[in-house]
């Protein structure tokens, strides 16, 4: 899967849009299917195992399914739209909301628990409210290749549209 497909990157004359979490959709569907298939297995073994063990397994399954459904409904379909005409950045989930103008935006790398990702935020409060625009990267060779592809095919075109100077590697 190439980078533009992984992020659902679209560029037309007036806007650039992409979905940072689109690549996780395939894996989430498989895990959701596994969770659904676990229901008949749990009910088959409900008479064999103790009632309290069945209740514990059901609660774990419920938390598991809520997590994956939340990701499928609220995290994966988020799309960021960079409108060239209005010079604004929009976030679209169910409705489209303006999050900032091009002049207010800054981008940086956020790191947590050994992984890092690219985020955008308003210059004055970028550490209070920011928006993740990339997948997580690590220090591995494959991750560095994916990061370079993200920079070349997604981030640099966005920054070019916004006229933000970029220090590109030679």
Number of helical stretches of at least 4 residues: 4
What level of helicity do the residues show?
40-55%
Calculate the terminal CA-CA distance, rounded to whole Å: 26 Å
Largest sheet: 5 strands, antiparallel
Portion in strands: 15-25%
Strand order of the largest sheet: 1-2-3-4-5
Please give the domain count. 2
The count of strands amounts to: 8
Mean pLDDT: 87
Q: Which structural class should the secondary elements be placed in?
A: alpha+beta
Order of helices and strands: HEEHHEEEEEEH
**Could you say which overall geometry the principal axes of the C-alpha atoms support?**
elongated
Feature tags:
170 residues, alpha+beta, five-stranded antiparallel beta sheet, three-stranded antiparallel beta sheet, 41% helix, 24% strand
Write the layout of secondary structure elements.
Blueprint: H1 3-6, E1 10-11, E2 15-18, H2 25-44, H3 51-75, E3 79-83, E4 88-92, E5 96-101, E6 105-112, E7 115-122, E8 130-132, H4 141-161
Antiparallel strand pairs: 1-2, 2-3, 3-4, 4-5, 6-7, 7-8
Helix pairs in contact: 2-3
């Amino acid at each position: 899967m190439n980078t533009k497909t992984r992020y659902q990157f679209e560029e037309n004359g007036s806007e650039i849009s992409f979905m940072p979490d689109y690549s996780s959709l395939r894996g989430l569907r498989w895990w959701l299917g596994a969770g659904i298939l676990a229901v008949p297995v749990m009910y088959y073994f409900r008479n064999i195992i103790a009632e309290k063990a069945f209740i514990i397994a059901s609660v774990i399954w419920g938390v598991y399914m809520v997590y994956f459904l939340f990701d499928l409904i609220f995290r994966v379909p988020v799309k960021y739209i960079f409108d060239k005409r209005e010079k604004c950045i929009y976030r679209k989930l169910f409705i489209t909301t303006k999050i900032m103008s091009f002049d207010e935006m800054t981008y940086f790398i956020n790191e947590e628990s050994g992984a890092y990702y690219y985020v955008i935020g308003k210059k004055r409060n970028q550490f209070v409210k920011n928006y993740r625009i990339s997948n997580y990267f690590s220090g591995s060779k494959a991750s560095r290749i994916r990061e370079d592809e993200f920079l070349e095919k997604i981030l640099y075109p966005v920054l070019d549209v916004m006229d933000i100077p970029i220090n590109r590697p030679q």
